[in-house]
Design a protein that fits this description.
alpha/beta, TIM Barrel, 9 strands, 38% helix
């Protein structure tokens, strides 16, 4: 694949991958090194739940080869609990420890849930908070913002992201725009890189499985819709960081294999 197309999974630590991706008997402590021998990027889900310690981040760096890239989520204390209000201390602590990854540090994602009308009747209060937070983030890093309310993807949001060099996360999610609809907009690519997340329908998948060791939904057609969009993004000179979740089709590694076959077959 194109070296500017970095495709990985949202986490490497699923115990059910032992025996289907990781060799049987692989200790969890060795999962990352094995993963990094086969894929060149990962999205760290664990940072959403807490800020990692220095020793943990150092271990991530040491167990991966040169050129490997970690994307990571901002902690939920910032994006969910405090909802961008008075969280400068948490942002600073998170960025400081993640900087220990050095040149292996990739995009950092501000992931927001779908907001009900009683939380934000319209996008303005949310965007007011986001504008303050983005203005306070140190430069020299890559940031992405994920929203799930379609109404939030307005001119103000896209202008705000563009001014700050922040990517709008392009997501495959049942509540969000399809990629073909998004790419018809001329202003949706707001940074010098693109950030893609294949999320799927979490509730529907969990009705079918809670083990993430096999594909239970055929998403070939859905993935195929992404191929032209990603080629267009690459043609514009951007690097793409894309991550498959287990909830997309039941098994993130299987989804990556399917995507690679589609990509190779479309070229």
């Amino acid at each position: 694949m194109n070296p500017r197309l970095r495709i990985g999974a949202s986490s490497w630590s699923a115990p059910s991958w032992e025996g289907v991706f990781y060799p049987p008997g692989t200790p969890p402590a060795d999962f990352l090194a094995y993963y990094a021998g086969r894929l060149d990027t990962v999205e760290v889900d664990a940072t959403f739940y807490r800020i990692p310690g220095e020793k943990m981040v150092d271990a991530w760096r040491e167990r991966t080869p040169p050129g490997f890239v970690f994307a990571a989520k901002f902690p939920q204390t910032i994006t969910r609990e405090k909802l961008l209000v008075e969280c400068a201390q948490e942002c600073g602590a998170f960025l400081k420890v993640m900087d220990r990854l050095g040149d292996k540090l990739g995009p950092l994602l501000l992931q927001f849930r779908y907001f009900r009308k009683d939380e934000f009747p319209d996008p303005k209060p949310f965007l007011d908070r986001l504008e303050v937070l983005l203005a306070g983030l140190p430069r020299g890093r890559r940031y992405a913002v994920e929203v799930r309310n379609k109404s939030f993807v307005n001119t103000r949001l896209l202008d705000l992201l563009r001014r700050n060099g922040v990517a709008l996360a392009l997501i495959d999610h049942p509540w969000f725009f399809g990629i073909e609809q998004l790419m018809r907009r001329s202003d949706v690519l707001t940074a010098e890189f693109a950030y893609v997340r294949w999320l799927g329908d979490r509730q529907a998948i969990e009705r079918g499985t809670t083990r993430w060791d096999r594909l239970i939904v055929d998403r070939t057609r859905d993935m195929g819709r992404w191929i032209p969009a990603l080629r267009t993004i690459l043609d514009r000179g951007l690097t793409i960081y894309g991550y498959f979740n287990n909830h997309y089709a039941g098994y993130a590694i299987g989804s990556i294999d399917t995507f690679r076959s589609l990509w190779d077959g479309s070229g």
